[in-house]
Fold this sequence. Notes:
Blueprint: E1 9-10, E2 20-25, H1 33-42, E3 49-52, E4 58-59, E5 67-68, H2 77-101, E6 109-114, H3 116-124, E7 134-138, H4 145-151, E8 158-163, H5 172-183, E9 188-193, H6 202-216
Parallel strand pairs: 2-3, 2-6, 6-7, 7-8, 8-9
Antiparallel strand pairs: 1-3, 4-5
Helix pairs in contact: 2-3, 4-5
Keywords: Hydrolase
Family: Belongs to the AB hydrolase superfamily. AB hydrolase 2 family.
InterPro entries: AB_hydrolase_fold, LYPA1-2/EST-like, PLipase/COase/thioEstase
Amino acid sequence: MSLPLTGPSRPPASGGKPTSLVVLLHGLGADGQDLIELADHLAPLLPDTAFIAPNAPEPCDMAPYGYQWFSLQERTPAVMAAGADRAAPVLAAFLETELAARGLDARRLALLGFSQGTMMSLHVGPRLSPGPAAIVGFSGALVAPERLAAEHRSNPPVLLIHGDADPVVPFPAMAAAASGLATAGIAAETLRRPGLGHGIDGPGFNAAAQFLVRHLRQPG
């Protein structure tokens, strides 16, 4: 069962009309509340940016609470690709609606994902036209890398951040994702976080914030 995408949001800290939108995509078994607090830390750096953190479309089938973008009970590449494909139109439609509501297009959009949210960011973002201004992925992976070169419609700048002690999504997934993106002509910066497990630490967050500021700053 898929649910309409809703979740917590934050208006621009400046109090004015947003000039950009950051969409925060949570991981398996979490919800939008899991990431929306990142907006409170990013807002002083991006005062004209709106933030929203939607709940994924399905109740999590591996926990009594939380949501999932697709099931991970079976983690073969084919099953994961099929799951991402099912969720992609739901997320793309949500992005289109939220951008239109703010008078923006995808060139003023950034996606920030964690774990399965990173998988969705990397699956949907490059297939948008126009593409997003930036994608940041923590502790994630690229689903169906062999298809991206033929299916991507944009080349957004990407930053991948991953702990080298991650017990959930193995650290080599970062290099594999960067390689798959590069094959499609999408440049990805990578940041290894020594000793970090499946999470976001201060240096990783700071790097993400600087990346978003760089790509969302209005020319002027």
